[in-house]
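TA notes, week 10

Several of you asked for a full example with nothing omitted. So below is the full record: structure tokens for the whole chain, then the designed sequence directly under it. When grading your own attempts, check the secondary structure regions first.
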């Protein structure tokens, strides 16, 4: 079993898609282990997107990710990491196929509905950035 960190981004919350997206994960066999609503700030985002913080589009990501509340979740499933990335589709929603979360609900490269961890190491680091051990059930 693997764990992955999922974030329902501000576009997901603004458009009231959180129920739909949660249902997709649950119906595909993911078990919910932790969940909270948060307003992100620069500190937590800089740690989360450490690999992107020197990119020219990083300020745009910060603006977007702080533009509304987010929901942060931990899911557990067999091959949770690759399965969640498949469900999401590629980063650019315009290139994502219909039937994927980003293909069905995303707008573009930045407003792409959800984050999902891309490796076991990232998942462990990201989960620890958002949750205390006792908040995971
Ligand atoms: P993913 O979320 O698919 O793992 P990345 O880790 O590369 O993709 O990027 C993190 C997030 O940063 C993306 O989901 C997207 O919201 C934003 N982003 C990535 N690349 C760009 C870009 N070129 N322009 C604007 N936003 C971007």
């Amino acid at each position: 079993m693997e764990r992955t960190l999922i974030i329902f981004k501000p576009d997901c919350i603004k458009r009231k898609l959180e129920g739909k997206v949660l249902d997709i994960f649950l119906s595909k066999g993911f078990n919910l282990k932790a969940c909270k609503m948060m307003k992100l700030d620069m500190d937590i985002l800089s740690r989360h997107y450490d690999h992107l913080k020197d990119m020219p589009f990083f300020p745009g990501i910060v603006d977007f990710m702080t533009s509304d509340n987010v929901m942060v979740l931990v899911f557990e499933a067999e091959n949770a990491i690759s399965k969640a990335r498949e469900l999401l589709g590629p980063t650019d929603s315009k290139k994502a196929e219909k039937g994927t979360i980003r293909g069905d609900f995303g707008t573009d490269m930045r407003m792409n509905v959800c984050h999902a961890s891309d490796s076991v190491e990232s998942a462990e680091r990201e989960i620890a950035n958002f949750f205390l051990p006792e908040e995971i059930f």
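Residues 52, 57, 60-61, 91, 109-110, 112, 115, 118 surround adenosine-5'-diphosphate (CB under 6 Å). Use that as a sanity check on your answer.
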